[in-house]
Amino acid sequence: MRKTTMMLAVAASTAFASQAALAYQAGDVYVRGSFEKADVTTDNVSDENAFYLSGGYLFHDKMGVELGVGESVEHDFGLAGNNLGTMDRMPVNLLVNYYPLGGIEEARVQPFAGLGVNYTRYSSIDEANAGDNIDIDDDYGVVGQVGVDLTLTSNLSATGYARWSDVDAEVDNNGNGIGKVKLDPVTVGAGLTYRF
């Protein structure tokens, strides 16, 4: 009888521990690797795929901060129907995320929504015409995202998300402003999240 009681106690504590491990709670740290596609709102810039790496920290069961950096990818770009060449674009996002089911032990599906600041760096400008001297100013803007984590194990989740960023490209040629390209990319991504 005593042995059976002990076995039941161990089983119950193990079940409780595994349930608690599923709960999103203050102090959790995570890293996420994903593959995403950015669909820009203008025909002057090509849509591209990229890898994205992010990490986050929950300072409350339902709230956390996340920093993400995208792979620098090459886009074809132009103005007013004229091809200007190619550019590399690298996004950096700092967000505050809200997890409505944070702290709930049984929640294997964890939706989230975030709002923050985007920094976009432009580099490696390759002009289509030899006489051009194209430069694109780096840009800051608002970024928002919605997504969901689907729990696979106590530490590993499959993640899907969509993100919108307010991104412009101020284009100069030989030091003179020649226009603005409004990208405002809608990015859809999927990947794996590991929670410590």
State the order of secondary-structure elements, H for helix, E for strand. HEEEEEEEEEEEE
What fraction of residues sit in β-strands? over 45%
Instruction: Calculate the mean pLDDT score and round it.
Output: 86
- What's the total number of strands? 12
Strand order of the largest sheet: 1-2-3-5-6-8-9-12
**pLDDT < 50 stretches:** 4-20
Q: What is the tally of helical segments?
A: 1
Q: What is the overall shape?
A: elongated
Largest sheet: 8 strands, antiparallel, barrel
What this model shows, in words?
It is a single chain. This protein has 196 residues and is mainly beta. Helix content is 11%, strand content 64%. It is built from 1 helix and 12 strands, in the order αββββββββββββ. It has one helix at 2-22; strands spanning 29-39, 48-60, 63-70, 73-79, 82-98, 109-127, 134-137, 139-151, 156-165, 168-173, 176-182, 186-195. Strands 1-2-3-5-6-8-9-12 form an 8-stranded antiparallel beta barrel. The longest helix has 21 residues, at 2-22. The chain is elongated. The two termini are 38 Å apart. Mean pLDDT is 86; it is low at 4-20.
SSE map:
Layout (H helix, E strand, L loop, with lengths): L1 H21 L6 E11 L8 E13 L2 E8 L2 E7 L2 E17 L10 E19 L6 E4 L1 E13 L4 E10 L2 E6 L2 E7 L3 E10 L1
Antiparallel strand pairs: 1-2, 1-12, 2-3, 3-5, 4-5, 5-6, 6-8, 7-10, 8-9, 9-12, 10-11
Short key terms for the protein model shown above:
single chain; 196 residues; mainly beta; 8-stranded antiparallel beta barrel; 3-stranded antiparallel beta sheet; 1 helix
Summarize, please:
The protein has 196 residues and is mainly beta. The chain has one helix spanning 2-22; strands at residues 29-39, 48-60, 63-70, 73-79, 82-98, 109-127, 134-137, 139-151, 156-165, 168-173, 176-182, 186-195.
